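Please check this chain.
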Amino acid sequence: MYRFLLTPRWLGAAALAVVAAVIMVMLGNWQLHRYQERSAINHRIDAADSVTAVPLTSAMAAPTAAGKAGASPGKALAWTKVSTSGRYDPTREIQARGRTVNGDVGYEIITPLVLADGTAVLVDRGWVPMPAAGAAAAPTVPPAPAGDVTVVGQVHLSESRPTAIEHRDGRLDTRRISVSRLAAEMPYPVYGAYVLLTSQTPANDPAFTRIPIDHEDSWQNGGYAVQWWLFACMALFAFVWQARKEAQDNAKPATAGEPAKPRVKLKDRVAEADRRREAARMAAMSDPIDRVEEADRRREATARQAAGE
């Protein structure tokens, strides 16, 4: 009944269905991995206020070369809550322009924190609004505290699409926070990610607005994973359904006990018309008309008409 599956056409269709299903399952697994990765990031974001901060040196590899950034901690450690102590270096402070918080545009202020071992980590102290005079005016930034400072914050990876670094308002000015580019402006080794400040000792100036952290859309990846797996099932189901339909069509004459109906050929309309005309001509030739009798019939009909008048 299913011997047709061994034909080249059906073997090719089976191979195509299996390959398509395998690819779709792999895509679904990749989306599942992204879902798990983003869910872990969201968990670290949500737990930041309740978990104990770990030392900075345990979360990130220490940098070694002056003017260069250390290794990035990677997405697995993004938003990890860390703590460290040192002294701020306000002479190399950075302002990231065009930053929006609660619908308002302003600046994020990043200040290097120099640790006891001579390395430094960039600390995003918070957001300040754009001055009333406009973007051309220098923002009002509270000075960094002098002396030893202990900061607690979350690891923030470098932003994508780095932009040029300029000198403006006595600070380094940039649109995107790229640690590797900013490290080139520093005289000391810089850690491979920066810290988004959540608390500080002594306390951070209240003029700063804490930077909100957006959650990852993990459920979108979860939905895509299920979608790809369903597509894989549909590809295999479509092959099985088509094969079953083919088998049923092949078995119909045998199960009904009737001989297979001969194929009906379409008639040639022109030939059929010619055949009919020829038949009419032959019929006329086989039954000749009696002209005398026909003439009498006509005269009789004319006389009846005259009498009726």
Summary: Residues 8-47 form the longest helix (40 residues). Residues 52-213 form one domain.
